[in-house]
Amino acid sequence: MNYKIDLSDLLFKALDGKLDKNKLVGLIEKPKYSHLGDLAFPCFELSKHYRKPPQTIAIELANKIESPLFEKVEATGGYLNVFLNKQSVSNVVLGSVVTNKNHYGTNNVGNGDVVTIDFSSPNIAKPFSMGHLRSTVIGNAIALLLDKCGYKPVRINYLGDWGTQFGKLIVAYKLWGNEQTVRENPIKELLKLYVKFHEEAEIDPQLNEKGREWFKKLEEADDEAISLWEWFRGESLKEFSKVYDLLGIRFDSYNGEAFYNDKMEDVVEILQEKNLLETSDGAKVVTFNEKSLPPCLIKKSDGTTLYATRDLAAAIYRQNTYNFSKSLYIVGNEQSLHFKQFFSVLEKMGYQWHNGLAHIPFGMILKDGKKMSTRKGKVVLLEEVLNEAIQLAEQNILAKNPNLESKKEVANAVGTGAIIFHDLKHFRQNDIEFSLQDMLKFEGETGPYVQYTHARACSLLRKGQYEEDVDSIHVVDQDHYTWDVIINLMKFPEVIEKATESYDPSQIAKYLIELSKSFNKYYSSVRILNDEDHKHSRLSLVHSITIVLKEGLRLLGIKAPEEM
Ligand code: ARG
């Protein structure tokens, strides 16, 4: 149902095969104004090949090209403008949506290839911050999109459960902690200890030394260190699970940094064998020819390992375990250098599969233009934000639809929908200013607006007692409200493909807003239920809307209640 392909086939024939089809498809545009048609083919490039003015070529093509799919083909200036046959296209589009249902737009570009996705990956003993929200919702949407396109996504939560900070935390706990208070309120208390450690260490740098010592003990499996660490980790996981449950997100693996503690020595050995390790101030590093790339630190002078060492071990483990064709890391912009470095180390180690590794970066969530920092205790807790959104949704329901049956469930879907959509509608590379007010908006270009549009369409189907009948779909309306909706519905498969290819869920979010807007205009202009002759075809359009909105929201990790 990609009419660009149909048009390019016809162009190909009409042009005696002089330009290749892919090139032709690439040239086809969507005209700026709808009075210029649905597709436009600029003839300027051809003019060089044929040594004729583009206007002449456009006229010649307009005379040659004919198809039942096209109502009219017109030469305007150097362009060939094509008007689709509204009636036949509408029938094909609605027929396809209603027949395929939630599989509409599914493709098999991925051909079963495995893609590992490292996402969310919060740090143990720290609260789940807004910063990790981005990785969580972007990663989840990318996993859902990849699945839709025939890949096999493997969802990995690479918990930050190892590193010097645990040495520091153990020191802080031993100095100032109290078992009772930590048990009562683990995350808040541990954060307090962590913040206090950094304040105190500014006055007494000796503390940092102690922190390193305790991390070394942890790496050497000292009993006391391990048991404190296990306790902190367990409590943190419980907290994180609450957030994942609220968001409806699951993982295939929770193998975090600690999992690789006993797998790093092998990496260091291989590096040694391949003569890639150099010594610098007592530390082991890998250097690069590229001048802009600083050396990658593999082992500190005290023998402890680093973030990069663990990532190397994890990448190799993942390749051996999952045999991935691609391995994605959904991590903020600020870690770009780290990824460049350890990807380059893998390349130097001679692993062909390093080509499949990709850092999918995203912008920061800023507060008053600045990064939020855990060290200074400046964090906003995601769980609190989510709960606030859910409460607000509940109040809305009580005010507008107090008799609604599953209030709790709907409030949950709408509250989390608002937060998730707010994040995903921004192109991931942009920074987002943190604004609770914006996140909790339910009107305008928001998740709840799309959800509400879906619920409104569902209620129309109930009122009209719609019964599905694919064979009798026969769209007669040719007004531009109907046509706008049809054109938008038709685009869905292409939007999915593009969003997946560029790992960009914001394309889906923006699409859902456009589709909702076009439907809401349709809804207020076309009398859907009042005309018995047209009722079925109009309701099949409404049905198609419910299918595509629901599936689009699902791809973003958002639920679509049938009533709100
Ligand atoms: N835990 C890290 C952080 O919060 C993110 C981990 C990203 N994944 C990775 N393989 N390095 O900054």
TrEMBL record:
Question: Which terms under GO biological process does the entry name?
Answer: arginyl-tRNA aminoacylation
A Pfam family (short name) is tRNA-synt_1d
The organism sits in which domain of life? Bacteria
Which residue range or ranges hold the Arginyl tRNA synthetase N-terminal domain?
5-84
Q: Name one GO molecular function term.
A: ATP binding
Cellular component per GO, a single term: cytoplasm
- Cleavable signal peptide: none
List the InterPro entries: Arg-tRNA-ligase, Arg-tRNA-synth_N, Arg-tRNA-synth_N_sf, ArgRS_core, DALR_anticod-bd, Rossmann-like_a/b/a_fold, tRNAsynth_Ia_anticodon-bd
Top class in the EC scheme: ligase
Residue ranges of the motif 'HIGH' region: 122-132
- The UniProt record lists the EC number as 6.1.1.19
Where is this chain's protein located in or outside the cell?
Answer: Cytoplasm
Any idea where the DALR anticodon binding domain is? 450-564
User: Does Cell membrane appear among the keywords?
Assistant: no
UniProt keyword list: Aminoacyl-tRNA synthetase, ATP-binding, Cytoplasm, Ligase, Nucleotide-binding, Protein biosynthesis
**Catalytically driven reaction(s):** tRNA(Arg) + L-arginine + ATP = L-arginyl-tRNA(Arg) + AMP + diphosphate
Q: Does the keyword Ubl conjugation apply?
A: no
Instruction: Return the SMART domains for the record.
Output: Arg_tRNA_synt_N, DALR_1
Question: What's the family?
Answer: Belongs to the class-I aminoacyl-tRNA synthetase family.
Partners and quaternary state? Monomer.
- What is the protein's given name? Arginine--tRNA ligase
Which species expresses this protein natively? Bacillus solimangrovi
